[in-house]
Amino acid sequence: MSLTTTFLIRGVGFDAGEVGVVNKTLGLLATIVGALYGGILMQRLSLFRALLIFGILQGASNAGYWLLSITDKHLYSMGAAVFFENLCGGMGTSAFVALLMTLCNKSFSATQFALLSALSAVGRVYVGPVAGWFVEAHGWSTFYLFSVAAAVPGLILLLVCRQTLEYTRVNDNFISRTEYPAGYAFAMWTLAAGVSLLAVWLLLLTMDALDLTHFSFLPALLEVGVLVALSGVVLGGLLDYLALRKTHLT
Q: Which residues contact 101 (CB under 8 A, 6 or more apart)?
């Protein structure tokens, strides 16, 4: 969570020293333990089950910060929330790395893994500013409740793509997409258009921050970019589901 430190200091009222010790030291330890424990569990679980279980835990772990936002501050409460969130984050990271390796071609694994890792971090660039505006408009408690609910669409998409994931893991290649070529092309162009709008928004936001320009349409541009990009993702997922039904894999 990009605003965790800000929340603990300004939202709850902990001292910077307390946050530094608990959030950074204990959080780092929990992340390492979570990654190691997640790797051990993945030896017994399939990739799909690991992604599903660890994804649920990651989403639910933000409820600890929600409890902090509606209760009196207590050092042990902060420690428990930070430890659990970072523990689940480490477990989720181990499953995510395994997913990326599954998606990579063995002949180009290093290049593709680096590219996919970089792409997975793009969302954080846009979540930070949006999260700040959301907190200002709705408050910390609503923000963390929303962060729990925000995990649900990804879990649903994972369930939809279960057979594709299992096929890729077993056969070491992707299912050929022969159905709906025009639909897939439109979905890709829609996603590219949304990402382009978000890139323009980020550039203009930077110019505004440097007092070079003062655009009033930036919030609207952000909303349009997010909606267009999400439309491309949803359309692609829907086409995947329909294509899988046609090939009798669902």
A: 109, 113
